User: Which sequence fits this backbone?
């Protein structure tokens, strides 16, 4: 039996990067998968094709997670299509790098709306559906190593990722009585759309690689296994936890 056989998994921000890897990983583990995406129609369709190639049902629903109504619509359409929601992977996020002293107000607001409030309302909508269903479920937030450490050009971003980590801790308490488990994954430096321009500098990339005990930057697929584990019944007694997926970067202070 596959780890997620019979489950319906929802993933936000899944047209590329970690979200796409999580969606495809869930399908390979036996789940039907509904993805949210913001604007990349072709990439979203390709993600659904990969889900279907794994032998599962897939559906893409376009929407901006910064709008609270997007969360309600996402869950409603998922239930209409596949009958239920077992897992919500809140992944959608942005990080427009910028210095602190001249940070534009709109950049801060947009980052908070997408990363933190988007995650909040997606998890809330999914949790309400899970409570109505009455058989529990799992919420997984894609936080970041940036929830634990600072970044000079990420003063708007790191608080949102710390907020998602904290949200999972609090919802673990709020939803435990409903059998809903709430956990976060904290990726380290993963090669995605968010940082591809920043890491185009070869010297910076080699510096970052040298700081990681496993000797390489992460790939989006490195998150698929940990997310599938937390979504599965193998993690039946895991809630309120945060799993670092960073190649050992966080512990490498010296």
Assistant:
């Amino acid at each position: 039996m596959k780890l997620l056989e019979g489950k319906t998994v929802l993933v936000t921000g899944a047209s590329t990067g970690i979200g796409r890897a999580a969606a495809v990983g869930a399908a390979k583990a036996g789940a039907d998968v509904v993805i949210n995406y913001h604007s990349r129609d072709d990439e979203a369709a390709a993600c659904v094709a990969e889900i279907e190639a794994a032998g599962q049902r897939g559906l893409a629903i376009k929407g901006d997670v910064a709008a609270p109504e997007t969360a309600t619509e996402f869950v409603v359409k998922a239930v209409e299509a596949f009958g239920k929601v077992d897992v919500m992977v809140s992944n959608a996020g942005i990080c427009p790098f910028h210095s602190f002293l001249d940070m534009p107000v709109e950049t801060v607001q947009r980052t908070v709306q997408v990363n933190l409030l988007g995650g909040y309302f997606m998890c809330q909508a999914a949790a309400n559906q899970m409570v109505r269903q009455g058989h529990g479920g799992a919420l997984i937030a894609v936080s970041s190593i940036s929830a634990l450490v600072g970044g000079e050009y990420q003063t708007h971003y790191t608080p949102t990722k710390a907020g998602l980590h904290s949200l999972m801790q609090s919802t673990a308490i709020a939803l435990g009585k409903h059998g809903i488990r709430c956990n976060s994954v904290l990726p380290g430096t993963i090669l995605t759309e968010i940082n591809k321009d920043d890491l185009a500098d070869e010297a910076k990339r080699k510096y970052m690689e040298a700081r990681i005990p496993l000797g390489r930057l992460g790939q989006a697929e490195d998150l698929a296994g940990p997310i599938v584990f937390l979504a599965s019944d193998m993690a039946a007694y895991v809630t309120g936890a945060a799993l670092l997926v960073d190649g050992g970067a966080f512990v490498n202070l010296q």
Notes: The chain is about 40% helix and 15% strand. The mean pLDDT is 95. The chain has one domain: 8-245.
